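Quick question, first post here. What does this chain look like in 3D?
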Amino acid sequence: MTDELQIRIGVPEDIDEMMELSASACDENGFTNPNPAKILHEIWPALNRDHGLVGIIGKAGGKAEGAVLLRIISTWYSDDLVLEERAIFIHPDFRSAKGGRARKLCEFSKQVADGLGIPLMIGVLSNHRTEAKVKLYERAFGAPAGAFFLYGAKTGGKPMIMEH
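> Answer (accepted):
Ran it through. Tokens below.
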């Protein structure tokens, strides 16, 4: 990582900024209604380095330019641990700024996985600029291991109620 753009490990004092950034991420990328209590339940432990962490671009006490939420989990079919990216989000005010923030958060995520010695599970779930995001991830991580599909929903829009 370059000297001009650093990623720091989030701390509990970052909670308000992370909740604000999460709200923006949900507005832009969510396909269901966000539940702030559930979001807090994921972010708070990671800010306390309890089965995860948050990588933040931005000075402590200042505006978060972008962040990645990483959680250590076991998949539903195994006891083995993996590092799961729950979200990478760059605040819209910083997307056109120099420095490659999303790329740096991807690299940071790989470094965390390497440091822990466990696989990283990361992906793109978006209907907005999807092709560009997938290309960024392919450059960072290699060929994809699958794809996501949404039926009856679209990211960044109001949730749709399907009648049965």
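The CA atoms of residues 45 and 67 lie 15 Å apart.
The radius of gyration is 16 Å.
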